[in-house]
Each structure stands twice: as structure tokens, then as C-alpha cells.
Design brief:
Elements lengths: L4 E2 L2 H16 L4 E7 L1 H4 L2 E2 L2 E7 L4 H15 L3 E5 L5 H10 L1 E5 L4 H21 L5
Parallel strand pairs: 4-5
Antiparallel strand pairs: 1-3, 2-4, 2-6
Helix pairs in contact: 4-5
Amino acid sequence: MLFKYKYFREDKVRVLSKLQELLEKEEKVLLAVIFGSFVDLESYRDIDIAVYSKDENLEFLAKLGAKLELELKIPVDVVPLRELEPRFRQRVLIKGIVVMEKQPGLYEALLSLTLDELKLLEIACYGVKYS
């Protein structure tokens, strides 16, 4: 049986604020987006964070997740944004909460690239459709 951590709206605001503060200190992290149950539901089991960073190797992401868990006292899953399947990346970017963006316009650029990638995949799979 899974144990659910339950936080209310005020607690989520506090968690987001603390998360933003912690991620701002991470030199390599350029963008962080919260997604999943933390965003969609009142109760949640963990915090899912997609990051776009200068270093997306597994060791860096694991250490970052562990550091955030220790500070927040909530389980944290960190995933590399650029490695997500395009349709899932689109969902994360559109429905998620941008917690931190160090380079203005980075979020919009990544969303645009994702939409372009999806369009190219559609053309490759189904061919060009003319109206």
C-alpha cells in the first residue's frame, strides 16, 4: 500500500517557494518545471520535476533529487526535460508549473522546439497533408 503525503494549498505555496529558492542556487539548472500529482491533485505522493540543465547525466540528477528531498522532506523525482518523449514533454511544459527560469525566454523556446518536433514526427509518419 502506498502512503500518500497530504498537503493543502498553503503548504504547496510554501513547498514551491522553498523549491524555487533551492533551485536558484543550482548553477547548472536553467529551467525547472513541476508536473504530475503535485500540480493536478490536492494530495500527492512525491514531487515530479523536469529540469533543463547544463548537466543532465544520471549522477547529477540523482544527487539533485536527493538534495531536494533532504531539504523538503518530501520524495522528489527529477527527470531531464530534453530526454522526455516529445508528446510527454509537451504535456509537462503546458500543464506544469515553471518554478525557475534563469534565462528569460527559455521556456518558450523549449515549448516551440517541442511543437516543431511533434509536427516533424507527424509529417514523417503520415506525410504532408494539403488542404
